[in-house]
UniProtKB/TrEMBL annotation, chain A:
Protein name: Glucose-6-phosphate 1-dehydrogenase
Origin species: Penstemon davidsonii
Protein task: Catalyzes the rate-limiting step of the oxidative pentose-phosphate pathway, which represents a route for the dissimilation of carbohydrates besides glycolysis.
Flavoprotein recorded as keyword: no
High-level lineage: Eukaryota, Viridiplantae, Streptophyta, Embryophyta, Tracheophyta
Entry similarity comment: Belongs to the glucose-6-phosphate dehydrogenase family.
InterPro entries: G6P_DH, G6P_DH_AS, G6P_DH_C, G6P_DH_NAD-bd, NAD(P)-bd_dom_sf
E.C. designation(s): 1.1.1.49
From TrEMBL, chain B:
Pathway: Carbohydrate degradation; pentose phosphate pathway; D-ribulose 5-phosphate from D-glucose 6-phosphate (oxidative stage): step 1/3
Organism: Penstemon davidsonii
Catalytic activity: D-glucose 6-phosphate + NADP(+) = 6-phospho-D-glucono-1,5-lactone + NADPH + H(+)
Highest taxon listed in the record's lineage: Eukaryota
Domain Glucose-6-phosphate dehydrogenase NAD-binding: 91-269
Family listed: Belongs to the glucose-6-phosphate dehydrogenase family.
Location of the Glucose-6-phosphate dehydrogenase C-terminal domain: 272-566
Entry EC no(s): 1.1.1.49
Protein name: Glucose-6-phosphate 1-dehydrogenase
């Protein structure tokens, strides 16, 4: 059982109102602390992700006293750099939490003094041996735990893992490796990657990150569902008409389309982030909150689904658009993208879960770039009230009068429930209002970045939010036939203007299953 | 509170329970905006039932409208030309406080919003000698214009006052009512006449007035209706005696017993919330609801006006009527329709499924003097209008049970008091705890603290909120209760009409949904009468509590006995 839950004491509950109390439950107070060390090696330290997310997240964890007493951070990359140069680079990206500026400068220096750099090739066992030596130096004979964060392109994953495990595995503690998407391009390449990784690592050493699972509201999804009686009876086909998982970005590839063009929006967003959220949303109640119990339930959901068919999917690609003198480039205008690229930048899909709880309930996904807004949200539309006494107050379209639960993951985290309400005044006119909870207004504390949570979980060995191999296989097998068909038949995406609401095909797809997109209603 | 008001709302403010049509439908030409016609004979083609005016063939605007702009425009089809009928509203007891503070302002507001028919007159009737002009002066001081539309207000006020007249007379003089009748006839000018009498007088003269009014001043061509306010007796016997007397002169459907709490916005909304939202429907029973609380509190005492109150006490004044009515609305089965008779049938069923209150399920209290800072707050018996040895309760808490399939075993707790630390009225629904809660460890040992709660705050600051368990944002897993909420002030810019406006309008329209039927009244008294008698016969001393406090601690023990915690006294609020 992970330390988080064990140590969430009664005391903390009573402090519920004092929201700025740091999460003390992460402070290690046992004796092991003195005898063990953690070394975190960021492989690909000069990359963007490392600079923007990983180092800041590590610093935030340090600031909040969530890292063990003895830890060191190593940057590893090909560029030649001294420790001081790495520190300078890292320093530029660190910010202090807005809510506690005190000592921030001091803390930052303390943190930086624990950062070191080792340059080397990703496929050189020799270079990793040098790293191993340096690590040992810092570990000074304590039990050594080592975490490698692979912030590198997928084609060198396996090489780096090979070298790291052969030359830099901890001799007396654990060794874990965090990898980020893409985990292959389809079932076969994903399985090949997994089997290659497994030559060098055990399943429980591989931490596949899906940073969406570290988002506050995704974490809260299970809390909402399993700790509130009022939601429990509603969570099934009996009351839920459809579920929508929506992701949109309001910018395109902006000159960095090389990687994206090789994958497309379905692989980039749907097959991983949205599908993972779907699985958490739809799973049966797990035996406990332990990682294996949760992941078992998620796999069951994925395995109850049929592979996507092409006629349940709409794909789109944004084209250039001029608005008020500003011209926004189309996808293929991006210099890093082939002129004849058919890679979808938008996709909508309808999925079904063939189990007793969800039979017949459409789960709709939608993801796109260069749309009119930026957001990620889950929308749960409920059925209409049977024999509604207020039918006449709604007109003929009862579907407009249904309840809807919206969980907005970003931006401006919020939960709200649309209910029908009487418009105040004489007479009886009904209207939809929101029962809502806007995080910004309720919680003054800054919401931690998903990477902080995930890094901390990896250090603590909490696997709940990481993806297991069988989950990954099941996820790919849902999408692979579709992806192959799209590629083979060279299916042309529907074009939509940059900054628009996406291709209209998405509406027809929804209409086919009697669904209205909740985010495109007049009300929003 | 500055308010913004859309012009759309102004025009259609009161045309809402009516037929909805597409603006481009062939009927559109017949739509005459701002015509008030619901009190006139209706076009039966469009009527389902005369009692609520829902049309059979409602259609809606599909393509327009949003949360902010109402979907439908509501119009009506007058069969008669306007001017065919008249409405006379006689306020009996026109010089009283209620008339000045509530009734005349409500009538003006209805007039302002174009909700009154074209031909109407308002008569004040009281013993005081007064001229029409004097009455108008008196009224004009109490009228205010809605804050959100000041334009023409002065004009409108003058127009309204021109329609106000006064007639002085004794309350038990048939002669004087006959004079009133002549004056009314004069104003009615031979048109179809509908007459509404509002009895704003002490209960001991109810029957006299009804006798005189109905024998001498009934309308011969249209309807005659009488609005009466509480108290409707002191117990089962006096109440049924009053009903019997009234029925000598009036039919059941002429009597409009007002309970102004039923006209409150959130009480009206209670049924909407319940019956038009799928998310609440499965929860509304003993399977999910652990207890329900009805809480009323005032932060002032009788303040030198305890004469009436001392005769009745808080149980009769608040519980037996307002809180019990809300309870019945809350707990009733789904009615066949929203028609008045269907709803009242269901409410009576609830009341009749309840057992009369037992003394051990009730706590009574009385406030005592309290010094806070330099200020001294007087106790109840310090009031010169209250006998020094009065044991009249100014506070009461009670546990009630409904013995039917839906509610068996669920405690319905009521609490009402004067001179408490806050002022408010609310309904709290506490849900059961989650069976097999996966997050048990995060709550500590007291799972009851982690249950959901739905709160409907009736006053002040109308709001609906639902307490849910939520993860405190941040690393780790700490849970906390947060609110999913809807504060009316923030969501609706329009001013919420006073309960009296709604009720007067309903009485004018013959909509009986919010008025209390005789059998409802009987059933309500039957629940409380044995208890009230026992309290009085045994002269049970109330538990004293300081002015401005949270009430007697006995209320906690009563709640604890039924395994309930008062939702308003948790420290969270």
């Amino acid at each position: 059982m992970p330390a988080i839950e064990d140590e969430a004491p009664l005391k903390n509950l009573k402090e519920g109102s004092s929201l700025v109390t740091p999460p003390k439950e992460h402070k290690k107070s046992n004796d092991n602390d003195d005898k063990s060390t953690v070394s975190i090696t960021v492989v690909g330290a000069s990359g963007d992700l490392a600079k923007k997310k990983i180092f800041p997240a590590l610093f935030a964890l340090y600031y909040e006293d969530c890292l063990p007493k003895h830890f060191t951070i190593f940057g590893y990359a090909r560029s030649k750099m001294t420790d001081a140069e790495l520190r300078n680079m890292v320093r530029k990206t660190l910010t202090c939490r807005i809510d506690k500026r005190e000592n921030c400068g001091e803390k930052m220096e303390e943190f930086l003094s624990r950062c070191f750099y080792q340059s080397g090739q990703y496929d050189s066992e020799e270079n990793f041996e040098e790293l191993d030596k340096k690590l040992k130096e810092h570990e000074t004979g304590r039990v050594s735990n080592r975490l490698f964060y692979l912030s590198i392109p997928p084609n060198i994953f396996v090489n780096a893992v090979k070298c790291a495990t052969l030359s830099a595995t901890s001799a007396n503690g654990w060794t874990r490796v965090i990898v980020e998407k893409p985990f292959g391009r389809d079932s076969e390449s994903s399985a090949a990657l997994t089997s290659a990784l497994k030559q060098y690592l055990e399943e429980d050493q591989i931490f596949r990150i899906d940073h969406y699972l570290g988002k506050e509201l995704i974490e809260n999804l299970s809390v909402l569902r399993f700790s509130n009686l009022i939601f429990e009876p509603l969570w099934s086909r009996q009351y839920i008409r459809n579920v929508q998982l929506i992701f949109s970005e309001d910018f395109g590839t902006e000159g960095r389309g090389g990687y994206f063009d090789h994958y497309g929006i379905i692989r980039d967003i749907m097959q991983n982030h949205l599908l993972q959220i779907l699985a958490i949303f739809a799973m049966e109640t797990p035996v406990s909150l332990d990682a294996e119990d949760i992941r078992n339930e998620k796999v069951k959901v994925l395995r109850s689904m049929m592979p996507l068919r092409a006629d349940d999917v709409v794909i789109g690609q944004y084209k250039s658009h001029t608005k008020g003198g500003v011209s926004y480039p189309g996808y293929t205008d991006d210099k890093t993208v082939p002129k004849d690229s058919l890679t979808p930048t938008f996709a909508a899909a309808a999925l079904f879960i063939n189990n007793a709880r969800w039979d017949g309930v459409p789960f709709l996904m939608k993801a796109g770039k260069a749309l009119h807004n930026r957001r990620a949200e889950i929308r749960v539309q409920f059925r209409h009230v049977p024999g509604n006494l207020y039918n006449r107050s709604f007109g003929t379209d009862l579907d407009r009068a249904t309840n809807e639960l919206v969980i907005r993951v970003q931006p401006d985290e919020a939960i709200y429930l649309k209910i029908n309400n009487k418009v105040p005044g004489l007479g009886m006119r009904l209207d939809r209002s929101n029962l809502n909870l806007l995080y910004k207004a309720r919680y003054s504390k800054e919401i931690p970045c998903a990477y902080e949570r995930l890094l901390l979980d990896a250090i603590e060995g909490e696997r709940r939010l990481f993806i297991r191999s069988d989950e990954l296989d099941a996820a790919w097998s849902l999408f692979t036939p579709l992806l192959k068909e799209l590629d083979e038949k060279k299916i042309i995406p529907e074009y939509y203007p940059y900054g628009s609401r996406g291709p209209v095909g998405a509406h027809y797809l929804a209409a086919k299953y009697n669904v209205k997109w909740g985010d495109l209603g007049v009300e929003e | 509170m500055a308010k913004v008001f859309s012009s759309f709302h102004v025009e259609n403010f009161c045309f809402t329970r009516k037929l909805t049509i597409l603006p481009n439908s062939p009927h559109f030409q017949k739509w005459v905006p701002n015509i008030f016609s619901r009190i006139e004979p209706r076009n039966h083609l469009f009527e389902l039932r005369s009692s609520n005016g829902y049309p059979l063939n409602a259609v809606s605007l599909q393509d327009e409208g949003s949360a902010a702009n109402p979907l439908v425009q509501e119009v009506d089809f007058p069969e008669f030309e306007k001017g065919d009928s008249t409405l006379s509203i006689t306020v009996v007891g026109a010089s009283g406080d209620l008339a000045k503070k509530k009734i005349f302002p409500a009538l003006f507001a209805l007039y302002y919003e174009d909700c009154l028919p074209e031909n109407f007159v308002v008569f004040g009737y009281a013993r005081t000698k007064m001229k029409d002009e004097e009455l108008r002066n008196m009224i004009s001081r109490t009228l205010t214009c809605r804050i959100d539309k000041r334009e023409n207000c002065g004009d409108k006020m003058e127009q309204f006052l021109k329609r106000c007249f006064y007639h002085s007379g004794q309350y038990n003089s048939e002669e004087h009512f006959a004079e009133l009748n002549c004056k009314l006839k004069e104003k009615e000018g031979g048109k179809l006449s509908n007459r509404l009498f509002y009895l704003s007088i002490p209960p001991n003269i109810f029957v006299d007035v009804v006798r005189c009014a109905s024998t001498k001043a009934s309308s011969t061509t249209g309807w005659t209706r009488v609005i009466v306010e509480k108290p409707f007796g002191r117990d089962s016997e006096s109440s049924s005696e009053l009903t019997r007397c009234l029925k000598q002169y009036l039919n059941e459907d002429q009597i409009f017993r007002i309970d102004h709490y039923l006209g409150k916005e959130l009480v009206e909304n209670l049924s909407v919330l319940r019956f038009s939202n799928l998310v609440f429907e499965p929860l509304w029973s003993r399977n999910y609801i652990r207890n329900v609380q009805f809480i009323f509190s005032e932060d002032f005492g009788t303040e030198g006006r305890g004469g009436y109150f001392d005769h009745y006490g808080i149980i009769r004044d608040i519980m037996q009527n307002h809180l019990l009515q809300i309870l019945a609305l809350f707990a009733m089965e789904t009615p066949v329709s929203m028609d008045a008779e269907d709803i009242r049938n269901e409410k009576v069923k609830v009341l009749r499924s309840m057992k009369p209150l037992q003394l051990e399920d009730v706590i009574v209290g009385q406030y005592k003097g309290h010094k806070k800072g330099d200020k001294l707050y007087p106790g109840y018996t310090d009031d010169p209008t209250v006998p020094n040895d009065s044991v009249t309760p100014t506070f009461a808490a009670a546990a009630l049970f409904i013995n039917n399939a839906r509610w068996d075993g669920v405690p319905f707790l009521m609490k009402a008091g004067k001179a408490l630390h806050t002022k408010g009225a609310e309904i709290r629904v506490q849900f059961r705890h989650v069976p097999g809660n996966l997050y048990k460890r995060n709550f500590g040992t007291d799972l009851d603290k982690a249950t959901n709660e739905l709160v409907l705050r009736v006053q002040p600051d109308e709001a609906i909120y639902l307490k849910i368990n939520n993860k405190v944002p941040g690393l780790g897993m700490r849970l906390d209760r947060s609110d999913l909420n809807l504060l009316y002030k923030a969501r609706y810019t329009r001013e919420i009409p006073d309960a009296y406006e709604r009720l007067l309008l309903d009485a004018v329209e013959g909509e009986r949904r919010l008025f209390i039927r005789s059998d409802e009244l009987d059933a309500a008294w039957a629940l409380f009468t044995p208890l009230l008698k026992e309290l009085e016969e045994r002269k049970i001393a109330p538990e004293l509590y300081p002015y401005g406090s949270r009430g007697p601690v006995g209320a906690y023990y009563l709640a604890a006995k039924h395994n309930v915690r008062w939702g308003d006294l948790t420290g969270e609020e």
